[in-house]
Design a protein that fits this description.
- The complex is a heterodimer.
- By secondary structure, chain A is of the alpha+beta class.
- Chain A folds into two domains: about 140 residues, CBS-domain (Roll); about 150 residues, Histidine kinase-like ATPase, C-terminal domain (Heat Shock Protein 90), CATH 3.30.565.
- Chain A is built from 13 helices and eleven strands.
- A five-stranded antiparallel beta sheet of chain A has the order 7-8-9-11-10, with helices on one face. Chain A has a four-stranded mixed beta sheet with strand order 1-6-5-4. Chain A has a two-stranded antiparallel sheet with strand order 2-3.
- In chain A, a hairpin with a 5-residue loop joins β5 and β6.
- By secondary structure, chain B is α/β, with parallel strands linked by helices.
- Chain B has a single domain, classed as Udp-n-acetylmuramoylalanyl-d-glutamate--2,6- Diaminopimelate Ligase, Chain: A, domain 1.
- Chain B is built from five helices and five strands; from the N terminus they run αββαβαβαβα.
- The radius of gyration of chain B is 13 Å and the shape is globular.
- The two termini of chain B are about 25 Å apart.
- Classes of the chains: A alpha+beta, B alpha/beta.
- Chains A and B meet through α9, α10 and α13 of A and α2, α3 and α4 of B.
């Protein structure tokens, strides 16, 4: 048996699915069948046949004074039927080579026994060594499904709470502000702020179109901070029920000619940056296409401030392809 | 046309973990190496052909919710990029063929669509 306390490397941990995780989290006693049917060694095989038939089971523990002494399954019953020997006691056919699991073991231990033994069921013993229940592969499957269902419901509730945030909290003007510090030259994390904002918006119940438009605009601005600034900058997103206001600021170098910078295809990106696929001169154009209003202010030598607004009330909002109106 | 058929027909190497490619049906195709153009032009769930292989292609594909990326001319993303793609559920495919050939083949196979206006 593998060491139950073995630790995982980060790489392994990343690849573990929720189901695998659950096999370590769930205890045998949480999924087993409690108070199972049982027989005593003196029971007749004929009674066993009736017990199996009536209750549609295929195996049962054999018990004397709460102590497990054997297990008898449908295979044993078949052997007995072949010899036409139904009047014999269970003790003649039961198996006494017993594999058991403890009620406090994680489910994975029971799974390992199932895999190595090909047994269909395992008796479960409590801390005193007395029979506490019985576990089958089916019990494990339904236990895991139940746990997954529980996870899912919790996630649903969390989503529901987030999407009703603005309805649940009453004020004259509620808003949620998200801030992201973007480092100059940090290409590795390029896109992580926009990705996080997109997830936050979806969680808050924004439509996929709104989330997409907002994240495209913020992605371009985020990459501009990474590529063009001297010290990076800050993205501030204020979410209100009726609009999203985005403010992107940096402290330099500033844009020399704002009008020229807005022209499609114009770029000041270096050759190295262009090789990475940036510097198409489409960043600001893309931003404009995605937002309902855009204001770009820059002082060369000082810094740049970009303010964007996206309306959340359908009728006021422009689509991704129409031309946004500039704020006057 | 699903991704499984495309992978088989173009003999693409799958760089990310295997998923049910038959269940992925790209909406359209897009070819460019300029990320801002992709941002502007690639449709939702489309298949992107590029020779860029650095980690930002995953960020772009994630934001646009693309079906996958075909990286051409044998450009190979690093392990970190592949891990990121796995985390975000972006399919990375690789080929030694150039972009023009791949786009042409896809078109020939009948994988056609109108560009985003």
């Amino acid at each position: 048996m593998a060491n139950p306390n073995r630790s995982f490397t980060d790489q392994e941990a990343e690849n573990i699915t929720r189901v695998e995780e659950l096999t370590y989290e769930l205890k045998v006693e949480e999924v087993m069948t409690r108070d199972p049917f049982f027989v005593i060694p003196e029971s007749k095989m004929n009674d066993l046949l009736e017990l199996f038939r009536k209750n549609r089971i295929s195996g049962t523990p054999v018990v004397v004074n709460h102590q497990l002494v054997g297990i008898v399954s449908i295979e044993d019953l078949i052997r007995c039927l072949q010899s036409n020997d139904l009047s014999s006691p269970v003790s003649k056919y039961m198996s006494t080579k017993l594999l058991t699991t403890r009620s406090t073991d994680p489910v994975i231990e029971a799974l390992k026994l199932f895999v190595s033994s090909h047994y269909g069921r395992l008796p479960v013993l409590d801390e005193q060594g007395q029979l506490a229940g019985i576990i089958t592969k089916g019990d494990i499957t339904s236990g895991i499904l139940k746990a997954l269902q529980h996870d899912y419901q919790e996630e649903e509730i969390r989503r529901y709470r987030a999407s009703h945030l603005f309805e649940d909290i009453v004020s004259d003007r509620s808003s949620l502000i998200l801030r992201y510090n973007i480092k100059q030259g940090d290409f590795i994390h390029g896109g992580s702020a926009s990705s996080a904002i997109k997830k936050a918006l979806l969680r808050l119940g924004a439509s996929p179109q709104i989330a997409r438009r907002t994240s495209i605009a913020i992605y371009e601005a985020e990459m501009n901070l990474i590529i063009h600034t001297t010290q990076g900058g800050i993205i501030r997103v204020e979410i209100e029920p009726q609009q999203i206001s985005i403010n992107i600021t940096d402290e330099g170098p500033g844009i020399e000619d704002v009008e020229l910078a807005m022209r499609p295809g114009f770029s000041t990106a270096t050759e190295t940056v262009r090789e990475l696929g940036f510097g198409a001169g489409m960043g600001l154009v893309n931003i404009q296409r995605c937002v309902d209003s855009m204001r770009l202010e820059s002082v060369y030598g000082k810094g740049t401030n970009l303010r964007l607004k996206i309306n959340l009330l359908e009728e006021e909002s422009v689509g991704e392809s129409s031309t946004p109106q500039k704020e006057r | 046309m699903n991704l499984q058929e495309i992978i088989r027909a173009l003999d693409l190497q799958v760089l990310t973990k295997s998923v049910d490619f038959q269940s992925i049906t790209p909406s359209c195709g897009y070819a460019s190496d300029l990320l801002s153009c992709v941002m502007a032009g690639a449709a939702h769930k489309s298949l992107w052909v590029t020779l860029q292989a650095h980690s930002n292609i995953v960020a772009v594909a994630t934001l646009l919710e693309l079906s996958g990326i075909i990286i051409t001319e044998d450009a190979k993303p690093d392990q970190e990029t592949i891990n990121k793609a796995n985390d975000e559920g972006i399919v990375l495919l690789s080929t030694v063929k150039p972009t023009f050939y791949i786009a042409g083949k896809l078109w020939e196979m009948g994988f056609r669509c109108k560009p985003v206006e």
